[in-house]
């Protein structure tokens, strides 16, 4: 179904609001504590799912008429218009709860039940690619997806979302949304557009550079500045990146290592150039009418993906996979994208939003046009070619080794 976007699904994007990255800040302490609780999780790793495993899992499973969906805050319009439409079309009801504040605390909460083969009381959940995602896969906690039940995904998902290295072939997951980490700058103070990671080490911006306190994001940029692909990096590469980042700090180039508050500093001129998340820049310009610019430097940038997946113990897996596929209808993807403002995995959503813009008027027309034409929401093929995935640490020991090199840079 490729229906036009329903005007009733649209919201006013002129309002300032928290986004997914604010949640990291607000619940940072919770996440840190839960991460410690999750350290050292042991279990027997399972082999990757084969066709026979898919057939075995789905054999005999039928529609139950309901889905319990766990997601992050602010990842759907609070009125849940898409879910209302899903229920109207399928008869399947959905209980939607914003119960995931970060990946470590969520994993710590659900791991004991999954290890015991018990239900976590959710049929569908959203987890970011990273160590928790890898553990969910390797410990056999996820249902292997039956792609015969995902025709919209097959037809409408972008090619790059069908070949992601952290889940080759989408055996266990399909994307909910993505975002990019690149460089942003305030055009009032930076008149020559930055093109390289080297601009974050440029002496003319001394004391006006913003870097992120998030160790993985920071470490990624240290590696990219050296021409190293973060996903394929070795511990020696991490050490080189740490030295590169330390030199930036010791030269006094960095004003501060920021959480979410970098966006305010960049807008006010406290900093002129900064590491940035694509969705933040789009939302800030839209809601506050700033003129911040976001670039993917020539060395590349990183892309994260939040992914839908079905716990193996789900009570209603057929209903859950039906809902997963529903979100890959371009009209539904367009509705979500218009609210979330991050990168959608459905390229066809762009034309749906553009058509809605053509039919709209006033502020709605302007807003929809901005979403439809933004490369922060719909990256170009050239942009995608430069994006790198995060490193999926093979275990907690490797992750701690990485953190031991990068975290001291922001703490001294």
Key features?
single chain; 10 strands; alpha/beta; 412 residues; ten-stranded mixed β-sheet; globular
Spans with pLDDT under 50 lasting ≥5 residues? Answer: 1-39
Number of helices: 17
Order of helices and strands: HHHEHEHEHHEEHHEHEHEEHHHHHEH
Find the count of extended strands (DSSP E, 2+ residues).
Answer: 10
Q: How does the major sheet shape up?
A: 10 strands, mixed
**End-to-end gap:** 55 Å
Query: Which structural class matches the secondary elements?
Result: alpha/beta
Q: What overall form do the CA principal axes indicate?
A: globular
Taken as a percent bin, the fraction of beta residues is 5-15%
Mean pLDDT: 89
Helical amount? 40-55%
Gyration radius from CA atoms, angstroms: 21 Å
